[in-house]
Design a protein that fits this description.
Largest sheet: 6 strands, parallel
Structural class: alpha/beta
Number of helices: 25
Radius of gyration: 29 Å
Strand order of the largest sheet: 1-9-6-4-2-3
Shape: globular
Strand content: 5-15%
Helix content: 40-55%
């Protein structure tokens, strides 16, 4: 079944890749010449991550003319106003946000204030900008994997004087470009990794069960749940696992897109209130409130919580065994017999069933099957709630993340509980919850989260997985000091491939003429298989190549190590191709053995220092 109406759009361009910040030239080229203000916080400046971003923009047409690094963990009205003023003073016409949700939200609202002027409170609300109004271009580089703010049109700014958080929503808040580089999250502390990860998981779960679901948001939310739940423990336990870090980033991004279209619910309503009144970190508040709200919503969304259980990888051997027992009971005798038949035999028996008594038995069996299916789905839905509780306990074991609101920082025995409940009931997120929130229920949920006494749960090896991709040493760059060196190495290597039995004959049979035009240093090498003999031509070629591939020489060096993907490089504009590209791509399987030959070739030439680990 489909909803009566839904919308979907994603105007933000997103690029992902390990160390992608080192090659931003082609990615940011469409922005033209710009003066940008970089918005971040002091902690990120001290870690060196901000310098990494600044270095990435060197050599591009975007100049970072100002840096605003005074964003607190929960950005305030004063913060936004100071940021907007600095951008105006420095004549900036672009915002670059480097940080987590607070930094990104600051950049969004400061952008709005810089363009519109006036008081910040005058712009609070939803979709006050007209369709023709624009903000300054914005680029976002997330350093956490949680908020998904790089692909959302919402922002939240704290008003400390009134203990509330001010909501802003504008389609123009969507950044023009989001850059996901897992190395930017590798230094994130374990507790922050846990809390922001649970923030993203909450986004995905609420997006999937809320009232305004859609087929698009459903698909994104479920995959986000799989990525986040399957990698969050690994990311906390093994911070250098860049595949786990990347999976968390992508999961957060998908969850952000999902809840941008279906919104969030009661968990966020309560978490916003806890943040505004007690200043509980948003991700932590979400983590502690999430299982309680899931239990509150359970009966209204059994099927959807069962889907979430499956997405989190929950298996049900006990449920299956109990179902088998039911099938074998005498009252389900007819169904049991049918269940043990093959599909063809079952169909034959159904067709052959003509007696009134047999049809009644069959109807009873089908009804019992539906009962079992409903029961199993219910068990799965409850398992999803328990999975979240266990995940919190495991994260506490790994990172010392608090497991109740008391340990999270509420030291007054919930003296301001009524105020929290009032703020929560007025939160816009409550409108989208699948069950109508009741004030009494909100109070009980907060009390349970405050008085809960779960204990950290040890994490076994089975809960983790081997390291996939870890941060390597300094990459090899400027491999070839000049064209002479490039020719000496690559021409000789290509001649070797030509004479390699498992490669040369297949290249000769391709009947393809491919020219490589290298940059830094400049050189040209052509592999011509159009004649009777396979030829390797150094320098300009007296003919017309079928395909011309233009690339930096360092990329070619990485490619022959098997560490650079040509297809991805074409997408990222690291390689420019002219001619019959699909025909060239078909050569890749032929060249695969060369990835083992190239490092050995370099070592034999006394160039072991150029071999990539």
């Amino acid at each position: 079944m489909l909803p009566d109406y839904f919308e979907f759009s994603l105007p933000t361009k997103l690029v992902y890749g390990i160390d992608i910040l080192a090659s931003l030239g082609e990615t940011v080229k469409p922005f033209g010449k710009r003066k940008a203000i970089l918005v971040t916080d002091e902690i990120l400046v001290n870690t060196g991550l901000v310098d990494k971003v600044k270095n990435g923009f060197k050599g591009t047409s975007i100049k970072i003319a100002a840096t605003f690094d005074q964003v607190p963990p929960n950005s305030t009205i004063d913060t936004v106003e100071k940021c907007a003023a600095l951008s105006t003073t420095k004549g900036c016409d672009m915002f670059i946000a480097v940080g987590g949700g607070s930094v990104i939200d600051t950049a969004k609202v400061a952008n709005l204030l810089a363009v519109k002027g006036g008081r910040l409170q005058d712009h609070m609300g939803a979709y006050l900008l007209g369709s023709g109004e624009t903000l300054l271009p914005a680029i976002v580089v997330p350093t956490t994997a949680g908020t998904g703010s790089e692909v959302t049109k919402v922002a939240v700014i704290a008003d400390p004087q009134n203990d509330v958080k001010l909501p802003f929503a504008e389609a123009q808040f969507l950044p023009d470009l989001a850059i996901l580089d897992p190395t930017m999250t590798a230094s994130m502390p374990g507790k922050l990794t846990a809390m922001t990860g649970m923030d993203a998981l909450t986004h995905a779960i609420e997006a999937y069960v809320d009232k305004e679901w859609s087929p698009a948001s459903d698909a994104l939310a479920l995959h986000a749940i799989t990525l986040i739940s399957g990698n969050i423990l690994q990311a906390c336990a093994k911070p250098d696992d860049l595949q786990a870090r990347g999976a968390m980033q992508v999961g957060s991004f998908l969850a952000g897109v999902a809840f941008s279209h279906s919104m969030v619910g009661m968990v966020h309503g309560i978490a916003h209130a806890l943040g505004g009144v007690y200043h509980i970190p948003h991700g932590l508040a979400n983590a502690l409130i999430l299982p309680e709200v899931m239990a509150y919503n359970l009966e209204a969304r059994v099927d959807r919580y069962a889907d979430i259980a499956v997405a989190m990888g929950i298996s049900f051997p006990q449920v299956v065994n109990q179902s088998r027992s039911l099938l074998n009971s005498s009252r389900l005798d007819v169904f049991s017999k049918l269940a043990n038949l093959s599909a063809v035999d079952s169909l034959k028996e159904l067709v052959a069933t003509t007696s009134h008594q047999a049809r009644n038995k069959l109807a009873t069996a089908i009804g019992n099957f539906r009962f079992i299916d409903t029961w199993v789905r219910g068990q799965a839905a409850q398992a999803a709630v328990e999975k979240i509780r266990c995940l919190n306990q495991q994260l506490s074991y790994l990172t010392k993340m608090p497991l109740n609101l008391k340990d999270a920082g509420i030291s007054d025995n919930l003296a301001r509980l009524d105020q929290v409940a009032t703020v929560a009931m007025e939160d816009g997120a409550m409108l989208y919850n699948p069950v109508e929130p009741e004030r009494g229920a909100v109070i009980e949920i907060i009390k349970r989260a405050y008085h809960a006494k779960p204990t950290p749960l040890p994490v076994s090896k089975a809960d983790l997985r081997p390291l996939a991709t870890v941060r390597s040493g300094k990459p090899v760059t400027q491999v070839f000091k000049d064209a002479k060196m490039l020719y000496e190495i690559l021409v000789e290597f290509y001649e070797m491939l030509k004479n390699t039995p498992e490669i040369g004959p297949k290249l000769a049979q391709s009947n393809l003429c491919v020219q490589f035009r290298y940059q830094k240093p400049s050189a040209v090498i052509t592999i011509d298989a159009t004649g009777d003999d396979l030829k390797i031509v150094k320098g300009e070629f007296d003919g017309t190549p079928e395909v011309v591939l233009t690339m930096n020489a360092d990329f070619a060096h990485a490619f022959w190590h098997g560490k650079a993907n040509l297809v991805s490089a074409l997408t990222r504009r690291q390689v420019k191709a002219k001619g019959n590209v699909p025909k060239t791509i078909k050569l890749l399987p032929i060249l695969k053995p060369s990835y083992a030959l190239y490092p050995k070739f370099l070592a034999d030439k006394g160039l072991r220092h150029l071999v990539m680990n």
